[in-house]
Amino acid sequence: MSPAGPASEHGRERVLVRLPRAGAGVEALPTVDPADAVSVSLTDATGALGAASALTDRGYRVVGAVAGRESGSWIDVLIPRAVLAGHEGWRALLASGGGRVLHPSFGPVAAVFGPVLAAHAAVRDGPVVP
Questions:
Q1: Residue 90's closest CA among 104, 75, 109, 105?
Q2: Which of 9, 42, 102, 116 has its CB 3.0 to 4.6 Å from that of 16, i.e. a possible disulfide?
Q3: What's the average model confidence in pLDDT over 45-64?
């Protein structure tokens, strides 16, 4: 699969939302429907381990820790564009600033976040664990 593959798998266009951990924190992530297969990873292993239960309780598929090219502590969420656009909690979170919405099909996004996108695709395509 190409790094851009997760952008439109299963007929649902997905975007990558990147939030600074210091600004948002996992407790700021709104609850989602588990059927929407929204996946989340953190860039640090300790944070990912500590947040796994809270994220699962909020409906997310937890990828774990995936380091990227950027320094700092980040929360990466791969979410269907329609869910992001229609979810009041996500709109409010993004309006508060600090987050970025990136489209995986753009070459630079796919190049920089390829490992993150691949990790999310592997978890998202697995079975749903309640």
A1: 75
A2: 102
A3: 86
Residue 32 pLDDT class (50, 70, 90 cuts): very high
Task: Quickly tell me which residue has 């309006």 as its tokens.
Answer: 95
Question: What are the C-alpha distances in Å from 53 to residues 57, 58, 93?
Answer: 6, 9, 21
Q: Assess contact for 21 and 42: CB atoms under 8 A.
A: yes
Region 103-128 average pLDDT = 83
Q: Which pTM value belongs to this model?
A: 0.83
Question: With contact defined as beta carbons under 8 Å apart, do 113 and 35 qualify?
Answer: no
Query: From the centroid of its chain, how far is CA 47?
Result: 15
- Strand 39-42 to 61-65 pairing: parallel
Strands 39-42 and 14-20: unpaired
Calculate the average pLDDT of the chain.
82
CA gyration radius, the chain: 13
Distance (Å) of CA 118 to CA 25, 56, 72: 23, 20, 20
pLDDT greater than 90 at residue 60: yes
